[in-house]
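Objective 1.3, modelling of assemblies. Example input:
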Amino acid sequence: MNYDVAIGMLGCGTVGSGVARLLQEKQNLYAQRVQAVPGLARVLVRDLARERPGIPAELLTLDPADVLEDPEIQIVIEVMGGIEPAREYILQALRAGKHVVTANKALIARHGLELFEAAAESGVALHFEAAVAGGIPIIQTLKRSLVANQVDAIYGIINGTTNYILSAMTEAGSDFQAVLREAQAQGFAESDPTDDIEGFDAAYKLAILAGLIFDQRIDMQQIHRVGIQRISAEDIAYARRFGYVIKLLAIARRTEHGMEARVNPTMIPQDHPLASVNGVYNALLVNGDAVGELMFYGRGAGQMPTASSIVGDVLNLVAELDAPPNVLMSSPLPATAAVLSPAERVMNRYYIRLQTHDKPGVLGQIGALLGQEEISIHTLVQTKNNPGEAELVLISHPVSELRLRQAVAQIRQLESVREIDSIIRVEDFRFH
Ligand code: NAP
Ligand code: HSE
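Predicted structure (tokens):
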């Protein structure tokens, strides 16, 4: 292949083969746009025998040195995934003075500091647009286009698998396990879906986004994370009855108590723009102090949307290859971790569903314990499922998580309370 800028690629699976396709099929267009022809020079894989339509066999190698130590290669794309050896290979590439583009959210969220420091020391760039929300161009938007703003809040649906599952549960009234099995059978969920359904994938992406908007380094352990595995068809039905839908929301925002970063199932009003984001789609609502509200919607994963972001990063690098490093795109992360507001102080409204004995005084006892913690009830519904038993569902006014936990611990002790099934945050989209 003829090219002006040699690209090395680590990995050539779902995303890598999409990148290869774009670089081949749109070579002329790209050359016109960035005044240079980028092209794949070497591609590292694990298995040379695997069929890779459209990839010339002579580009493939099993030896990482063919990419990392080739002085001709100026840009390395990492689309292997996982932490090791991807981390080690990226460090080698950066130390060898190569720019790196990666789609690896777990790696950036967990080892970003080390990688950005290595990039700064070598005067090269590390770009990662595809690591958050696949095809949605949110990283460059935050780093470049919104640089004039203080971003006060981001609310994101940034995991397609969980959004697909919650949307299907909402549509069909089905239970979590049934929808998960169907999603796996159709290839919408991984055979090991832990990272997605327990909120790790969204938390990696949120750690990256929160670091950008707070201008501070966010460690994964600082993100309050709850997955969707305990959401039931009953909760979804009650949400609908009260005018809400349940989404796995990733939130980073400035509050009166400090900065907050959390991923958790959240009831959001049915008429909110994020409520209509269904299936595998992602969306982000961004609030900047100058620009106001912005909303981004699109495919958060998949071969070509992800390749779009990666090749976008590559072309941006090619366009600036002879210029000094762009400070907006290459500044290292601060070494000290951000101080986030403790979850206990954050104020939220809560939905609580519990099973009780159906006898006089139960409601009074629960109301008294909530009252002791100054928790005021906004909505209350009692239904009767089995003889002698009642299901209570309530939505509170805003309360600190600490007070809620204290009240719930006491309610759990009541002899008349059989079980507390669910506690879900209710979001009203305030950020100051
Ligand atoms: P994938 O289909 O599993 O492809 C991984 C590729 O890396 C394969 O070509 C594999 O080689 C190669 N590889 C893995 N370990 C290797 C090693 N130790 N040495 C050499 N080659 C190795 O993964 P993917 O879906 O393309 O995802 C790649 C990255 O993009 C991940 O970080 C992922 O989180 C991120 N991402 C993916 C999506 C998406 O929609 N898939 C969206 C956003 C971000 P063989 O082909 O020889 O097995
Ligand atoms: N597993 C992710 C999702 C896609 O379901 O959104 C890659 O980030």
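The mean pLDDT is 94.
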